[in-house]
Predict the 3D structure of the following.
Amino acid sequence: MKATRSIPALIALTLGMSAATEVSAKTTLRIATLAPKASSWGKVVKVWRKAVIKKSGGALDLKVFYNAVQGRENAMVGKMKAGQLDGALLSTQGLSAINPDVRALALPGLILDWNSLEKVRKALTPAFKKAYEEKGYILYGWSDAGLMRGFSKGVKATKPSQLSGKRVVLFNDDAMSAQANSLIPGLVSVPLDPFETLPQIRSGNVNYVTVPAIAAEQLQWTPHLQYTYDRISGAATGGTLFKKAPLDALPADVRAGFMSIATRLIPYNTKNNRAEDDASFRRIAKKLEVVKISGADKAAWEAHDKKALKKIAQGTMPRALVSKVAKLVGKSL
């Protein structure tokens, strides 16, 4: 996939100087990601590593485990807790293993554009960071994947009831999505990992999946799908989490430099990922039928999302937090 800027340009942006030759590091932080090394996400991680080495003058390096070689997100979090990893790039689902309130960023039907996400995240980030620090972690920064939309095969689902009797992908045993799915009689939730989904789509064993366009494209699902939808159901976001202890053990100047990289790299990464998600959807729209959701069908989805939020607020998440997010985007329970 073509990046919006070249890798050397990104390094220059991050460091305020050109790339330099890699040297041996005195300290290495071990981090893991689900992203393949050759993906657009993996390329940014590679740039990040080069920036860390350059900024620290070779005092610090990152050992990056790509492509889920350290396991799925729950395994990564477990290895961080055990001291086998120092950090990980995680989705909100992975982040929620340590701070469940982060799932507020993935509530159904509330955050439907990037401006809304920025508003909600700005309001909640201080509390999130404090909660992580109290548990011995540092939230290094956020990362966005793309806007969530439906993709389907074997069904054109313009309203929720049309998913009755269909098989819908449920990622990582996501409790909120499971509750939303349970409101549609006859819908069958199929628990899958993203890397397990391609053969299920290809065989027709699942009919509907909700992901950003960039994920559907990079995971090579789109050749086996029929429809996508213009309805946005949420924003896929996540973040980079580190154990606090290994960062605190760094020399003060090295730690300060490492943290400062986030202030340059993460805004770039955010802008780049959002642009790539848009570009992915434009390409997909030339290959799949784009189904427009409007009128009574749009109202049916909105009613479904509101019922799901009420159900989630009954115990899955604190009602006050769900209400706060709704209020921030101009909605109510």
In short: Confidence is low (pLDDT under 50) at residues 1-25.
